[in-house]
Amino acid sequence: MAKNTSLFRIEGTLDNVTFYKSADGYLVRTKGGVSKKRIMNDPAFVRTRENGREFGRSASSGKLLRDAVGSFVFKAKDSKLSSRLMKVMFDIKNQDLVSVRGERNVVNGLATATGKAYLKGFDFNIRATLKSVFFNPFVVDATTGMLTFTDLNPIEAIRFLEGATHFSLQSGFVNLDFATGASAITYSAVTNLPINGAVSTITLTPSGVPTGTGIEFVVLLLEFFQEVNGEQYSLNNGAFNVLNIVEVL
Q1: For residue range 46-59, what is the model confidence (pLDDT) as tens digits?
Q2: Strand boundaries in 98-208, DSSP class E
Q3: Predicted structure pTM score
Q4: CA 178 to centroid of chain Cα atoms
């Protein structure tokens, strides 16, 4: 794949050469390859069809997860979230040891400890990962989804952005059925504090246990704000907020 460096930013197809814009700039590729009809019918491409089905299910599972975390995802995400999440779902699908090739899925993958381990710790915003920003230990209550942060000192526990005066913490308790697509989420109240040396213990308690028969997991949202004349404004439009799956139950 080539990159277009000319003065003219062309998009479209010209003489079997396609010009298009991506997050990495203007790219160029040639048109061609095996026809879709042959891929869908030729026995020589049976492996390709199997991979395609599993690829599609992994992509759909990633979208289900993005949708399940509700408004949180709009406050902390990066431009390549969809592709990164799809890769995680593809890895989880590979842990399905009971289905035949072409039918492996995320539901069976998450029934294993290894599959759950792929999901735990996932960061929705690669520009601000939980491990690189937040250093205070916490405890998760598997029954209620409650998060407890003991003796949190913002100056010592948070790598905050220049200009940030405040931060907030909020959690979500999610139940997601990857087989049916049904999901539910409950939220904790928002804890908003100034970035100073005051030490406190913070408890984030979801409003209840989400209903459903799917897999349960807890997410943590960390946002940064700048106070101006008594009003708090999202710092850098939330570009460096943190959203992490802290526990998979």
Answers
A1: 555 656 676 778 88
A2: 139-140, 147-152, 166-176, 183-187, 191-194, 200-204
A3: 0.81
A4: 15
